[in-house]
Design goal:
The structure is a homodimer of 333-residue chains.
Chain A lengths: L2 E4 L2 H7 L4 H9 L2 E4 L6 H11 L3 E4 L10 H4 L5 E4 L10 H5 L3 E3 L6 H17 L1 H10 L18 E4 L3 H10 L6 E4 L5 H7 L2 E2 L3 H6 L3 E4 L13 H4 L7 E4 L8 H10 L3 E4 L19 E3 L11 H16 L10 H6 L2
Parallel strand pairs in A: 1-2, 1-3, 3-4, 4-5, 6-7, 6-9, 7-8, 9-10, 10-11, 11-12
Chain lengths: 333, 333
């Protein structure tokens, strides 16, 4: 029986820098280190069968596990997946068979919150407009130019999970007027964060200067941000999406964007990569990023640390952080 | 004797919204309200002579006071100037004659700090590059795209006045590795802010990932940021200037910018408006703003509140906040 570390060199360098790999090896015990390049799914399945590992340490490039993997590798108990999207690696049948799986959990939330704050600040200062003006039009401000600050603004968050709670920490030095709409979250979490609870999306969009979309994408949430909601954002306000593009009626968002009354910051889109012909491209009140919210390359180490902590927990208590059960698996994007 | 309020409608609406004007009028006692449009300097001097005011409330559009103004208006004691640059309004001779003058002081510092934080975050995420790529090139990220976070980064501040201290508050949720170089500032101020003191600019630029230029412009500081200093910023690092353009050797900054190894965020320039032909325009690693650090239009009210507080203090104790003495006048930009 040999555990398996299946990572590329870049994955090792970014997730497990400065001694992280050595620590993982120590925690895993007997192991083989394989590189996923040129490893097809058949060879990968054979390797797993031959090694019959207890633990697999994996990342983006690791091939998908075979269906009903524990039929082939009965000793396999735990897959420590360093990134987020477990569906790229784990078939549902493995979870059904009782395989324990962890991913980066909320260790990367703060980088997405950082991206959200940046987009909000960029909306306030109209950075997209000014970048276009300064770089392509040879322009400068004039007496008519106005600009806004985030200080004292009303900020509404749609969703109140780990990213939102990190965002609140970053927003607090600017404003105490923070509210969130997230029906499932208990009142105590709102109270701890000093965030006002808002019951309906209608209120959330009407009563804030800035709305940040941070909700998880579920069937119920698909295109939940309608034209009616978006039109409630007051003129001069802002809408930022770092959650998922499919939460928003993007055709409606485009119609509203074109009117130029609000500033918009987008990191996510219903179709990714964003099509070359997307009408959002070119609109000076819409800042566009290519889904790079988080984790940033330099903070993948946080996800690596989270994985190491889980390997440590696996060896000690067995109580893993952010274990992906069937329920979480089904809700994962 | 009649006090004078000389403000445009826009100045009243932005500096003194929601009852601010009424409060100013109450604090000033007998007054006349004049609008500076079409008020030439001669008519303005006559008006001052005829009113012989004790207080003048002024802003950007108010014409310059006549030389030795107290020879004409012996009762004039206090000019409450709502914006910052008193040299646009007050001849040195008036201060020599004992005139008390206040401006917005540090009431607007936080908005400039906000702009600095935004530029730093934009450098980390390469917002200028991505705006160009997303809006003009129809692009999307690829496997080679890397991005950075401000979390845990080393941030060095050149200058440790009011803006820097506000910036520290905004930086703290991201990193504790903040240092500053500002020879004149007492150690106690560093200790209170939890900021490490750095003795030399050489160390400041060598030992930080991000350097923010926030120093006052003095004769001694003119182009103090040399090519040698700029080249010390580590590859992948960032340089942000929200202080004054003339603090920096901009030719050297351009040469370094062109090499693309660091990200740069600029709100200020040696020559403003930035010439249409400036070589900085078009460089995808240089985010450019047209000197709109602060205050933002919506936070001019903070400067108005500061002015009202000083009118109140003038009436009560006479101890004004941020009184501009000859020393401050000579150092003002």
């Amino acid at each position: 029986m040999k555990n398996i570390i299946c990572l590329t060199e870049v994955e090792i360098d970014t997730f497990l820098p400065s001694g992280g790999l050595a620590e993982a090896q120590k925690l895993m015990g007997p192991y083989i280190l394989v590189t996923p390049e040129n490893l097809d799914r058949e060879a990968w399945a054979d390797l797993i069968e031959n090694c019959d590992p207890e633990i697999i340490l994996a990342a983006w490039e690791t091939p998908m596990l075979p269906e009903h993997v524990r039929d082939r590798a009965p000793n396999l108990k735990y897959v420590c997946y360093l990134p987020g999207s477990v569906r790229k690696l784990i078939p549902r049948s493995a979870i059904e068979q009782g395989l324990m799986v962890t991913n980066w959990g909320s260790s990367i939330s703060r980088t997405i919150a950082e991206c959200a704050l940046m987009l909000v600040l960029c909306c306030m200062r109209r950075v997209c407009y000014w970048t276009q003006q300064m770089h392509y039009e040879g322009a400068w401000k004039d007496g008519e130019s106005t600009t806004q600050s985030l200080f004292e603004k009303r900020v509404g968050l749609h969703g109140f999970g780990a990213i939102s709670r990190q965002l609140v920490i970053l927003l607090k030095p600017f404003t105490n007027r923070i509210s969130a709409c997230s029906p499932g979250v208990p009142q105590s979490i709102f109270d701890e964060s000093g965030v006002a609870r808002i019951e309906t999306l209608e209120e959330l969009f009407s009563e804030n200067d800035v709305v940040v979309e941070l909700s998880a994408l579920t069937e119920k949430n698909y295109r939940i941000v309608t034209e009616d909601l978006l039109r409630r954002i007051p003129e001069g306000g802002a809408f930022v999406n770092v959650g998922r593009g499919a939460l928003v009626d993007e055709d409606a968002l485009y119609r509203i964007a074109k009117e130029g009354k609000i500033q918009i910051g987008l990191d996510v889109y219903g179709e990714e990569p964003l099509p070359e012909t997307s009408p959002f491209r070119g609109l000076s009140n819409v800042l566009l990023l290519p889904h790079l919210g988080g984790p940033t390359t330099d903070r993948r180490a946080d996800a690596g640390d989270h994985g190491l902590e889980n390997l440590r927990r696996y060896r000690n208590s067995g109580e893993l952080l952010d274990n992906i059960d069937l329920d979480k698996f089904d809700r994962a994007s």
